[in-house]
Fold each of these.
Amino acid sequence: MTQYVLQAEDVAIHYGGVKAVDGVSLTLTKGQIRGLIGPNGAGKSTVIDAITGRSRLTRGQISLNGEDVSALGVVERRMRGLSRSFQRTSIFGQMPVRKQVELASHKMGVKDSQADADDVLQELDLWPMRDTLADDLGYGEQRRLDLALALVGRPSVLLLDEPMAGLSVKESLDLAQHLKALTSRWEVSVLLVEHDMDVVFGISDEVTVFELGRVIASGSPAAVRADTRVREAYLGSSA
Ligand SMILES: Nc1ncnc2c1ncn2[C@@H]1O[C@H](COP(=O)(O)OP(=O)(O)O)[C@@H](O)[C@H]1O
Ligand SMILES: [Mg+2]
């Protein structure tokens, strides 16, 4: 039996009559990248909120490393290795990079938070900017700092909601390479919601496609790209 790092089973989130997510199942194995795509309003962000514990499940179950965490809150899940990155909301502009990563690590209860922070900074090539104020970083570097803050305490699962938004092609590729390296070196599993199809199909081991709160296709990038329903629903006939 495969031991999934993350397993979402028959997850539903309904807001009154709106079935934002309606019976979604997906898994992550160790070090796997799963791309999650679909039109606006398909339920991608909602499913991330469901997995992190930010939104209450209408139905279904979330398991982390074999443990049912459905009844646990956001912080308890984070402490068990389920992390997400936010877009810049977590950055203190007037604090040096190293200090804020260390602070995040300390807040996580990591014993040697300095070593933890320094590992993360080195892994994401932020070490040369360790004394720079976040406000003085370039945009691409700020996004790497978002990622750094999500990586303190060595999470096993990383959930990313459009991490490439607003980045140049070069910055996106750079971030994608860092993600790929993280999955092999740190064996982090990644659920990647992203509009940039080149990135998604380029770095994902598997791709899942949502439409109207449901999974309409899931499989290897090549299989999903070739799926008639996906092409009609999302990629357009020219894809
Ligand atoms: N708090 C909420 N209350 C009511 N409807 C919501 C709420 N959050 C999301 N929705 C609805 O759920 C659907 C899925 O939204 P979302 O998960 O943000 O889609 P995506 O991230 O794929 O663009 C949309 O129809 C959206 O309007
Ligand atoms: Mg969204």
Amino acid sequence: MSASAIHSAEDARRLARRRLPWMVFDYIDGSAGAETGAARNRAALDAITLQPRILRDVSQRSMATTLFGAPAERPFGIAPMGMCNLSAPGADLMLARLAAKYKIPHGVSTVASTPLEEILEVADGHAWFQIYFTGDGVGTFKLIERARHAGYETLVLTVDVPEVGRRPRELRHGFKMPFRIGPRQFIDFALHPRWSLTSLFHGKPQMANFEMPGYAFDRTESRARADWSTLEQMRAAWPGKLVVKGVLDPQDAAMLKDKGVDAIQVSSHGARQLESAPSPALMLPEIRKTVGPEFPLFFDSGLRSGEDVLKVMSQGADFAFFGRILQYAIAAGGEDGLHAMWNVLSEELSIAMAQSGLSVLPQHRSD
Ligand SMILES: Cc1cc2nc3c(=O)[nH]c(=O)nc-3n(C[C@H](O)[C@H](O)[C@H](O)COP(=O)(O)O)c2cc1C
């Protein structure tokens, strides 16, 4: 029933807000500081316009594209998010099945709540492993090796979290990973019985990738030691595609290209890190100019519709990623909710293409 009530990302958010314990909703929904960065991201996206074009026979439209030479049925995918199973039991695998169906990448977070091997299998190979460089990097390189051994072909290095951003909404609820249930959380859960009964019945969500000798992960451990030599090391250690996520500076983008990364993800981590960062949508055209027309550029942060995807593609992105709204959809209606959200996003994109006079996606690269 909830799935049929999803006609926009805001519908999914509203339903998720009702269903989820406050602690979980605020963990997913929250942004850094006073959340002005999130508002700025939205304002920049809202300010982009698409030019309507007429009488171009747009009856046959394709949303297909290619990613690193492989076909993808949509120009958007799933951003890596930690602890997705908080939105509902099995959320990671719902996302993996979606990725397999549409041949789009599922970003598998370092702190995913399902083992990385299982996600890759269920996603039928359409999964990219996201890594944080933490502490002295020993555990990081072990995890990279594990991902390589599992068969991952694309590694996403997230670079915009040298220290974890402060998100007051999350802090107020005492949100922690590993997940702990104290008296305050108990009351919150008791007031959201539908979530609590299903989630706690399945066992509380865990960070599933750390059952490795010599690698205990502390989410709050500093990631500040990474530097350009770390990137070089990672490039040398990873034979597959290397994407660097969390780039907002054209000079950084130029250096990354020089260092041999395969793609850059323009992102402000959904405004969850540096509150005062410029909006990715604002930086995208300049970064595109800097790296040239052929270099693969991806985008995330603040996208709320299929029309938003067309907007960022018109500004130079080759591919876009959705974060929060997919978790809202799962919280609202489980796997049906996720598919309903996906269909909404697809329809929004398709209609926006027609109204802009496009039968194929802009900047459709034939790599
Ligand atoms: C709950 C949550 C957890 C996240 N965890 C990670 C993570 O583990 N690694 C990462 O690179 N990005 C993480 N992100 C950031 C997303 O990959 C992405 O940049 C962001 O969600 C995009 O913005 P949007 O949510 O407005 O679409 C997380 C985002 C959320 C909302």
Amino acid sequence: MTTVASDPTEIFIPGGHGTAFPVSKGQFLEIVDVEGQQVADVVAFAALDRREWLSTTHTRSATLRLGLEVGDLLESNWRRPMFKLVHDDVGSHDVITSMCDDRRYRLDYGVEGHRSCRTNLAEAYSPWGITEWEIPDPFNIFQNAPIHPDRSFGNEIPPGTAGDSVVFEVLMDSIVGISSCPQDLNPCNGFNPSPILARVLNHYDA
Ligand SMILES: [Zn+2]
């Protein structure tokens, strides 16, 4: 993928849909909450070996925190840094909960055939031969899952407003998957799934 700073690759993800695309070491990945209050479920696989993937578990073990802060390194299941958070307008992200899937809507809400992050990402990764069961737990960018004093956590309307973004420095050639979460039955996306914009930049001045 070849881009220049003045002409970035932009990938518009309609609310409730998903996509996957390659990024290269040295590039920057910006994820924009276009209208506000929208979660982006983000996963990634190493481009050279699909057995290596972006891991919330290993990242938590490295940062010893249940959120993300600027400067954090996001690690793979092989404990290698894949991304570095270099900019954050929101400061509210979830690295605990699973992505939504068709079972979630069927079992918890009695709804059949609802779009889900897992089916979005399975469809998006199909050109790379990556199947549903291989998709790891997500980094739920912009999600508001506050940690309570008793160590329970909530699921509340995200604080992000229109145009807020995060930027990651890409530290490993990867295939990134992003789902603009279709959840409209709880506060996760303000009850109104809306678009996410991804930009792949060759340069970024923090
Ligand atoms: Zn979802």
